[in-house]
Amino acid sequence: MVIGGGAAGFFCAVNAARLNPGLSVIIAERTGQVLQKVKVSGGGRCNVTHACFDIQEMSACYPRGERFLRKAFHQFFVSDTIEWFQERGVLLKVEEDGRMFPEANTSQAVIDCLQQEAQAYGVKLELHATVGKIEPLEAGFKINFSKGQSMLTDFVVIACGGFSKLSQFEWLSNLQLKVEEPVPSLFTFNFPAHSLNQLMGIAAPESSVKISGTKLSSDGPVLITHWGLSGPAVLRLSAFAARELAQRGYRFSVVVNWCSIYNEQSIAEKIRNERNASPSRKVINGNFTGLASRLWEHLLAVSGIDHSKRWADLTVSMMNTLSKKCCAYEMNALGKTTFKDEFVSAGGISLSEIDHNTMMSKKYPGLYFAGEVMDVDGITGGYNFQHAWTSGYIAASHICKSQ
């Protein structure tokens, strides 16, 4: 029995049924629908994986689970995912940032593929089936459902997805598994009533964001929203800083370098060169940063430089302030906003409980884990789905070998 009809659970189920036709495989899904996260992810296109073919580089994109996956990826990696879907008629395409989507440009292609596999290999699906307790027996397990029914099974795969609260793991309390407390990952930073929010929709493609007082930083595009900052650099940073920021109650300071090709010293030199080369030119027309004009105007305004100022009019203090605002723009965050459908939790079943070679519990032979229920989470870009495919496949493969 696979508990959970998401990406990891479905992938595990169809591969177990395919690799060992003698198995009777059941997916128990507590809701009325399966593969919901697959359906909505990537704006409805499903970011299946990421075009990274180096295990060490790929595993470094998981704030929790890097070492665990570095070992697991040797069994089922990105190239295996691409081949698996390709063999079933779902060709994947690579976008500029490395994300991989179905060529059909819709998540339905992935959903249809998985459901066709389930049908072809006789995987049974039980909807509105909430598991209340798993009882280990001398041989196998007894699954107790919340509506009173029970079922005996030889193998159990827990693939119920991530939970946002520790209390949501209570149905597993009798197993006495170590659980890392869940905290949000992949979220945007809120800066209520900040003047920068008036520039919503503007992106700075080559930026750097750092959490003040830490070594945590991230490079990449930053998007200004009506509540604060988003974009790949912010989401990646939120993932690596998830526990740190939760401990701070999401009150923290960030420092943004809007044009990371410069640092404060190099941009200060560039400003001096502009002043010497074009003294009579208005500074507002001398945007050498490549940033959007409205963001450049904002940086001038917060540096005390109005629209009439020429390069020659700038004092040393104004030039120093402009350098700092371009490369070390400090803001105090108050809160977070979950990043739509890419939301994942940091936390879950501790990896110390799980054998990375098999995804099986170290305490209970025959009990397996797959997907986000484990204390593994990646940055946005297809990494969490790759973990789902990898862990689901490894669990399925080992179950078939054990049968």
In short:
The protein is α+β, with helices and mostly antiparallel strands and 403 residues long. 32% of the residues lie in helices and 23% in strands. Strand 13 and strand 14 form a beta hairpin.
Output the keywords.
403 residues; alpha+beta; FAD/NAD(P)-binding domain; 2 domains; seven-stranded antiparallel sheet; five-stranded parallel sheet; 12 helices
Structural summary, described in words:
The radius of gyration is 25 Å and the shape is elongated. The chain has a 7-stranded antiparallel β-sheet. It has a 5-stranded parallel β-sheet with strand order 6-2-1-10-20, with helices on one face. It contains 12 helices and 20 strands. It is an alpha+beta fold and 403 residues long. It has 2 domains: 2-184 and 344-402, 3-Layer(bba) Sandwich (FAD/NAD(P)-binding domain); 187-338, no CATH class.
Topology (SSEs and partners):
Blueprint: E1 2-3, H1 7-19, E2 26-29, H2 36-44, E3 49-50, H3 55-59, H4 66-72, H5 78-87, E4 92-94, E5 99-102, H6 108-120, E6 124-127, E7 131-136, E8 141-145, E9 150-153, E10 156-158, E11 179-185, E12 187-190, E13 203-211, E14 217-224, E15 228-230, H7 232-240, H8 242-247, E16 251-257, H9 264-277, H10 293-302, H11 316-327, E17 329-334, E18 336-338, E19 344-349, E20 367-369, H12 383-402
Parallel strand pairs: 1-2, 1-10, 2-6, 10-20
Antiparallel strand pairs: 3-5, 4-5, 7-8, 8-9, 11-19, 12-15, 12-18, 13-14, 13-16, 14-15, 16-17
Helix pairs in contact: 1-6, 1-12, 9-11
